[in-house]
Amino acid sequence: GTSTAEVLITRSTDGQYLLLTGYASTAATSLSGTASTAVNRVVGRVDAAGNIDTTTALSDFASASSPRSATSHNGTDLWVAGGAGGVRYTTLNATTSTQISTSVTNNRQVHIFDGQLYVSDASGSSFRLATVGVGLPTTAGQVYTNLPGLPTGTGSPYGFFFADLDGTVAGVDTLYVADDGAGIQKYSLVGGTWVLNGTLAGSGYRGLTGAVSGTTVSLFSISNTSVATVQDAGGYNQTFSETTLTSLATAATNTAFRGVALAPIPAGDPAPAVV
After folding, report:
1. What is the pLDDT of residues 120-130, one digit of tens each?
2. Comparing C-alpha atoms, which of 261, 196, 185 is closest to residue 222?
3. Reduced to 3 states, what is the DSSP secondary structure of residue 236?
4. pTM higher than the cut 0.85
């Protein structure tokens, strides 16, 4: 595909798999305009040994639009999002999916943190980053709830990463968002509202992941042309401790970067500390 919102790769919260979306086709033409019944939208699953599973080929996902992201907590239960059809639930090897919400159907990154399903969006004015139902829903009729304090009708968020940096705040309390117009934004949950702590200015950043060590967060982000990193030791409800992103790699001619995730770990290894 060619959409800048495609391939927002994630790692499952048990740490064992990478999840991504694509098309059941090798054609070089405009795949996003095809019907999903003719060109199935595929969920790819990759384990730590490099085994690739593309058996999940969906006939009802992102039809006439682009598949963008997939997430899972165990590599079997799958949630997907794209440019049409809203957030959907399916399982490994399935051929169809369940649309779990109909309120906003053009979505971007879907991800799980601390046992809750989230999705980012930039269409309409209902939300920009929202919870999807409660926990990990699998049935229709779920409600998107914008995170309190975040804008609903402005901004262009793609990838996001939550961290738990303060033991006095229940659950995840720090949020980083890749906004392709603004840069990398940092929020903290203060009294039930997400408060903006600062922004690392930059354009085109879409993919985002991180790793936590104590109260230091190592962030990795992707634009079309570069992979960049920054370490934030500021901690909860503080500004970024570093003010610039450092480039790690540059895309070769006629190539582009899309998503970023930490590598999967072998089955039986300890799960990641932040899930």
Report:
1. 999 888 899 99
2. 261
3. coil
4. yes
